[in-house]
């Protein structure tokens, strides 16, 4: 498998106004603070974490919908970090995004035909091909051709998400960033859309970055997972390994907090104390130490780096997990 | 606990909305009862009528267009639907309280938490202001808000989502209600915070002994906290049983569909079994069983006969034709 996307030490800091009305003191919110990962062609990388952990900002920074503060992004081996204007616009043909809210992400004044063919128009695809493609796209996402002339408000949430997916696929991208694509949907509809996305991945050989807070959906769809907390990746690995044997205390807490639809499972629940600290004023040292049940002195001062914790490629950023050195 | 008389009984509740384009039968024949200290779950997807059921109990249905067209809501034996608005106001917030999904829109943003809490307490209890303030501090401690005395002076926006939900719970508990209706109390929260809030509700119920009606779309939450469950679809209850038997032995095809469509973290399937199609338009429900058009097990008669509630086991009721012929029909 070849690497399609590589992100190295990506940072995105947003300047925000300070608390005082009278000084011009600026604070920075470190939404993404040193994130590195790779995505291979045809695989799905799940990006999970709670609200405010920087998972959506990571997705948007890769597409350069927001400009990264520092770090490098390689797409098909090419450094695209400094790409601007026309050059970046061309590249977006290969990278698309599906948004969370199917109500806000479709223009209410345009018909489905206009919405889906818009990206093709922008990239000068001839009209005859556009129509052919439109029909095929509607077909693959499970809509009918009579839907073409309708407007977004005439569709249910699940159908709108299908329209969003069709639009994202209109230019035959290689990489699709899915930003919470099923969180707004009811469970029965959620399963339909998840199944559809899996089918499309197979059919078009797509690569997904699947951003979600729902750990069970991520478990289902991903090959590899990265868990984020306050702008950093705290643990990453193959999905089965990570879910079966989480090493980082945050991942352990997160997994134990999911209510399982089976009352016979008696889980040992780790309830973490307190709230997520503010990203504009993150704690020193390990960012999780304020809520971690195992925190010790070193955690308050030194921020741990990701280290290898299994022979299967699992990595965790915690002072108290044992490093596993791969043997050759 | 089983022999106790129910504190709240809902009988044949029908709440309809009269819109220009037709009558929306949001709640269409809901029956349940709940005993003191018990947690009843109401599960369903958007539009299944679970929130409208809660609003009907509290008499908070906007009218027009909404109207409770039929049914009884018996609280300690008295029908709430026959009470005057004045009488109702004495019950709301004192005997029956409610917490909502979004604590930001249900708290007043321009008043401090202290003002809002004291207002609730003074409305219902015979206390002076400083006693009410002490009670507020007590409540803030009860729900686990640190530095309660200082935090009372804060405005809602100064609290995080989880803390705001704690404030909401504190306010709902201000007058020791006997029934707490929780409408998706953890849906807007992150999982680690959700775990904290569920644990808190559990602890408070043990201490205070109130009955909780837990409205949720998340079967995981049901498994965690509920004693009994009612599954709703298109305004009607389709299955009603104890939580353990719902998960061990679900009977209704819709419940099967719901359970199969959630990905599980303990096992991995190649494909999720989705329920095909979409919920019906409540203005034009299909003839027969509302779920029939999406049901994998639908028979010919499902499209014409609306099934009645069948008792399949002790305290396990299902609305489905699959069970109707063999079992005794208890109500229509």
TrEMBL record, chain A:
Q: Which SMART domains match?
A: AAA
**What family does the Swiss-Prot or TrEMBL record give for this protein?**
Belongs to the ABC transporter superfamily.
Which superkingdom? Bacteria
Specify one Pfam family: oligo_HPY
List, alphabetically, the CDD domains matched: ABC_NikE_OppD_transporters
What protein does this entry describe?
Dipeptide ABC transporter ATP-binding protein
Concerning InterPro entries, the annotation shows: AAA+_ATPase, ABC_transp_ATP-bind, ABC_transporter-like_ATP-bd, ABC_transporter-like_CS, Oligopep_ABC_C, P-loop_NTPase
Single Gene Ontology MF annotation: ATP binding
From TrEMBL, chain B:
Localization of this protein? Cell membrane
Which Gene3D superfamilies does UniProt cross-reference here?
Answer: P-loop containing nucleotide triphosphate hydrolases
| Ribonucleoprotein found in the keyword field | no
Question: Where does this protein chiefly localize?
Answer: membrane
Q: How is the protein disposed in the membrane?
A: Peripheral membrane protein
Q: Which CDD domains match?
A: ABC_NikE_OppD_transporters (cd03257)
- Annotated GO CC locations: plasma membrane
The source's domain of life comes to: Bacteria
Cite the ABC transporter domain residue spans from the record: 8-259
Q: Name one GO biological process term.
A: peptide transport
Q: Does the keyword ATP-binding apply?
A: yes
Any one Gene Ontology molecular-function term assigned to this protein's record: ATP hydrolysis activity
Keyword annotations of the record: ATP-binding, Cell membrane, Membrane, Nucleotide-binding, Transport
Family matches, as PANTHER family: DIPEPTIDE TRANSPORT ATP-BINDING PROTEIN DPPD, OLIGOPEPTIDE TRANSPORT ATP-BINDING PROTEIN APPD
The Swiss-Prot or TrEMBL record describes its family as follows: Belongs to the ABC transporter superfamily.
Q: What is this protein called?
A: ABC transporter ATP-binding protein
């Amino acid at each position: 498998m070849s690497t399609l996307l590589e992100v190295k030490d990506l940072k995105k800091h947003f300047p925000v106004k300070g608390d005082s009305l009278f000084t011009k003191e600026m604070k920075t919110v470190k939404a993404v603070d040193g994130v590195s990962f790779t995505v291979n062609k045809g695989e799905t990388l799940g990006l999970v974490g709670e609200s405010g952990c920087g998972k959506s900002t990571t997705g948007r920074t890769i597409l350069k919908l927001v400009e990264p503060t520092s770090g490098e992004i390689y797409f098909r081996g090419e450094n695209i970090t400094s790409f601007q204007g026309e050059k970046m616009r061309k590249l977006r043909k290969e990278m698309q995004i599906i948004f969370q809210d199917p109500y806000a992400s479709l223009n209410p004044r345009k018909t489905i035909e206009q919405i889906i063919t818009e990206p093709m128009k922008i990239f000068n695809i001839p009209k005859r091909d556009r129509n052919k493609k439109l029909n095929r796209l509607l077909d693959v996402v499970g809509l009918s051709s009579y839907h073409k002339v309708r407007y977004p408000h005439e569709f249910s949430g699940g159908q709108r998400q299908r329209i969003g997916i069709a639009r994202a696929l209109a230019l035959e991208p290689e990489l699709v960033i899915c930003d919470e694509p099923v969180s707004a949907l009811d469970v029965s509809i959620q399963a339909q859309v998840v199944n559809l996305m899996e089918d499309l991945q197979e059919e078009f050989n797509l690569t997904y970055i699947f951003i979600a807070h729902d750990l069970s959906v991520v478990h289902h769809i991903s090959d590899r997972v990265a868990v984020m907390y306050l702008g950093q990746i705290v643990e990453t690995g193959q999905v089965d390994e990570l879910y079966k044997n989480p090493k980082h205390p945050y991942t352990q807490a997160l997994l134990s907090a999911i209510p399982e639809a089976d009352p016979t499972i008696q889980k040992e629940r780790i309830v973490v104390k307190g709230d997520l600290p503010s990203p504009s004023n993150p704690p020193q040292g390990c960012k999780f130490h304020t809520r971690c049940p195992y925190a010790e002195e070193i955690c308050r001062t030194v921020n741990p780096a990701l280290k290898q914790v299994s022979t299967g490629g699992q990595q965790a950023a915690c002072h108290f997990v044992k490093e596993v050195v791969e043997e050759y | 606990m089983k022999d106790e008389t129910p504190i709240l009984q809902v009988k044949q509740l029908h709440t309809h909305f009269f819109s220009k384009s037709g009558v929306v039968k949001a709640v269409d024949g809901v029956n349940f009862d709940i005993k003191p200290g018990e947690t009843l779950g109401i599960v369903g997807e958007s539009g299944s009528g679970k929130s409208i059921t809660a609003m009907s109990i509290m008499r908070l249905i906007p009218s027009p267009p909404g109207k409770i067209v039929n049914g009884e809501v018996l609280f300690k034996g008295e029908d709430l639907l026959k009470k005057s608005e004045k009488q109702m106001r004495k019950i709301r917030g004192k005997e029956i309280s409610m917490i909502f999904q979004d604590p930001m829109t249900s708290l007043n943003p321009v008043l401090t938490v202290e003002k809002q809490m004291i207002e609730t307490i003074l409305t219902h209890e015979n206390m002076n202001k400083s006693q009410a303030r002490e009670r507020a501090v007590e409540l803030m401690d009860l729900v686990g808000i640190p530095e309660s005395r200082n935090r009372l002076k804060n405005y809602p926006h100064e609290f995080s989502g989880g803390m705001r939900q704690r404030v909401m719970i504190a306010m709902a508990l201000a007058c020791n209600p006997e029934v707490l209706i929780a409408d998706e109390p953890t849906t807007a929260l992150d999982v680690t915070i959700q775990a904290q809030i569920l644990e808190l509700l559990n602890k408070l119920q043990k201490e205070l002994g109130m009955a909780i009606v837990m409205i949720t779309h998340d079967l995981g939450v049901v498994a965690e906290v509920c004693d009994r469950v009612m599954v709703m679809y298109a305004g009607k209850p389709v299955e009603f049983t104890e939580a353990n038997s719902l998960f061990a032995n679900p009977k209704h095809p819709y419940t099967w569909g719901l359970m199969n469509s959630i990905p599980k973290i303990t096992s991995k399937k190649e494909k999720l079994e989705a329920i095909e199609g979409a919920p019906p338009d409540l203005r034009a429900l299909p003839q027969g069983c509302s779920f029939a058009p999406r049901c994998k097990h639908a028979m010919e008669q499902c499209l014409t006969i609306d099934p009645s509630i069948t008792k399949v086991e002790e305290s396990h009721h299902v609305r489905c034709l699959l069970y109707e012929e063999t079992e005794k029909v208890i109500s229509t």
